[in-house]
């Protein structure tokens, strides 16, 4: 069945199913203690890939798999900081985009090792700010990318953090998704995007969005990350 033939309820269900699997993957990462002091970031990333194959057997395609710790957590997605060994008092985030039955999940979570109060506060603020951004989206029917970015930036500043990137999310869909062109600001939740997020794409399908919250503490050189579906 061609993807265009998928009706909207089916697409929505597949995207939610992919996300549920990603959520289960992250629960297992935590339960199996894969993010641990002394481990290299790449080694952890490879173990997560192997775990996904063990659990689901369907993760043939991924966007860039990211495990970042310490100062590497400040780097935007496009950068590739050198592999770093995770330390005892670290903050670590993982950002994975596994594909389940041709539908992509895009999921990010933050782990804190040790008891640094700032790092724990950051980890607690990430889902709270995500939820507040999602509520704001729900309450504003004609919201644009620019408006949602501004609200996420405001929420971050109010909590004492800065945003780590030039955007706060992007379109999501079937794999391979319409490859996001760096110049295509309409594919991102970013200050340059004046178009409504609730719209249809070129093929007439409903646009679905991922909301990304990347908060950083510049002074202490660490950050955290939280992302999942915004629109479902």
Written description of the protein model:
With 232 residues, this protein is an alpha+beta fold. The two termini are 23 Å apart. Helix content is 33%, strand content 19%. The chain is globular.
Question: For the residues shown, what is the average pLDDT?
Answer: 91
Number of helices, counting only DSSP H or I runs of 4 residues or more: 4
Compressed to H and E, one letter per element, the order equals HHEEEEEHHEEEE
Mind describing the biggest β-sheet?
4 strands, antiparallel
Count all strands and give the number.
9
Strand content: 15-25%
Question: What is Rg?
Answer: 17 Å
- Percent helix range: 25-40%
Shape: globular
Brief characterization of the structure:
The protein is an alpha+beta fold and 232 residues long. It has four helices and nine strands, in the order ααβββββααββββ.
Please name the defining characteristics of this protein:
alpha+beta, 9 strands, 4-stranded antiparallel beta sheet, 4 helices, 3-stranded antiparallel beta sheet, globular, single chain, 33% helix, 232 residues, 19% strand
What secondary-structure arrangement, pairings included, does this model have?
Layout: H1 8-31, H2 41-55, E1 66-69, E2 91-96, E3 99-100, E4 103-104, E5 107-112, H3 117-139, H4 145-158, E6 162-163, E7 169-172, E8 208-217, E9 222-229
Antiparallel strand pairs: 1-2, 2-5, 3-4, 6-8, 7-8, 8-9
Helix pairs in contact: 3-4
């Amino acid at each position: 069945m061609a993807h265009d033939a998928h009706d909207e309820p089916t697409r929505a269900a597949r995207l939610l199913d992919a996300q549920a699997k990603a959520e289960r993957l992250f629960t297992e990462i935590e339960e199996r203690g894969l993010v641990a002091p002394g481990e290299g970031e790449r080694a952890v990333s490879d173990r997560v890939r192997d775990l996904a194959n063990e659990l689901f057997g369907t993760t043939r395609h991924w966007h860039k798999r990211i495990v970042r710790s310490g100062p590497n957590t400040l780097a935007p997605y496009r950068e590739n900081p050198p592999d770093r060994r995770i330390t005892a008092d670290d903050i670590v985030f993982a950002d994975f985009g596994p594909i389940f039955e041709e539908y992509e999940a895009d999921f990010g979570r933050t782990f804190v090792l040790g008891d640094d109060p700032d790092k724990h506060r950051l980890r607690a603020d990430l889902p709270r700010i995500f939820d507040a951004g999602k509520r704001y989206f729900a309450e504003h029917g004609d919201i644009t990318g620019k408006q949602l970015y501004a609200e996420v930036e405001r929420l971050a500043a109010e909590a004492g953090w800065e945003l780590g990137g030039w955007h706060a999310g992007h379109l999501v869909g079937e794999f391979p998704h319409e490859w996001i062109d760096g110049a295509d600001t309409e594919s991102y939740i970013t200050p340059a995007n004046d178009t409504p997020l609730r719209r249809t794409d070129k093929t007439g399908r409903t646009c679905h969005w991922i909301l990304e919250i990347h908060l950083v503490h510049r002074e202490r050189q660490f950050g955290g990350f939280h992302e999942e579906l915004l629109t479902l």
